[in-house]
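Let us work through a complete example step by step.
Step 1: write down the sequence.
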Amino acid sequence: MSEGEKLQKVLARLGLGSRRELERWISEGRVKVDDQVAKLGDRITAKARVKVDNRPVKMEGAEKATRLLLYNKPEGEVCSTSDPEGRKTVFDRLPKLQGERWIVVGRLDINTTGLLLFTTDGELANKLMHPSSEIEREYLVRVLGTADGQMQENMKAGVELEDGVAQFTDIVDGGGEGVNHWYYVCLKEGRNREVRRLWESQGLQVNRLKRVRFGPVFMPSRLKAGQYEFIAQKGANVVYDAVGLTRAKVKSLRAEEKAEQTRQQRKKGRR
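Step 2: predict the structure and record it as tokens.
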């Protein structure tokens, strides 16, 4: 919190009221920071001395904290908390939380595998997914056939799809044998089936698709399909920096969460 957070957000986290209510209190001059009347737009750190109606506010718990993990999504899981058709969801294997909820960052369709990020920080999730952040996604794609130079140039220059122009920022040949060929592709948005539709615009069908990177986060080779891994403080700092947000303290795992994670890894190892 070296740069601080907006005063009303910190006070709301401490349970003093809603953000809107606290903004009104600030406008009415009821809040002081370091003995000065606060104003809307002020930012504070956990070290600030805050008073509301001249009563000191206990700042314990004021520091922004979060949980962040990556998950290797297998084929056949949907990116929703529940499914009316009874299919497995990406939330089924995640550790249970109390008083918080996991937010999925950047959905993948049921047939796409690979890296998914989850966080308890809604602001971070929104920043990572918003087009203005231009967070790059990288995929490993297997197509039926081979893309010649002109096809690759078309997809990098931009193709008009039904929901607007789409393009890859980079295409790297990944080799292949027989009728299939592999490519690594990057793009800076995540519209529905965008990668598949770009290849289809060139007459090529995608038969395998895996996300291997989301912004600064790469899929570790040690993580098998269906397994998750918590992102530690150093990695979380990189993610927050990538979208220009104040770094949040990563919450330590409680004993029961650690035990659940260990059980999951062992279960996967027996399969």
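Step 3: interpret the result. The helical segments are 7-13, 19-27, 122-129, 149-157, 194-200, 233-242, 255-270.
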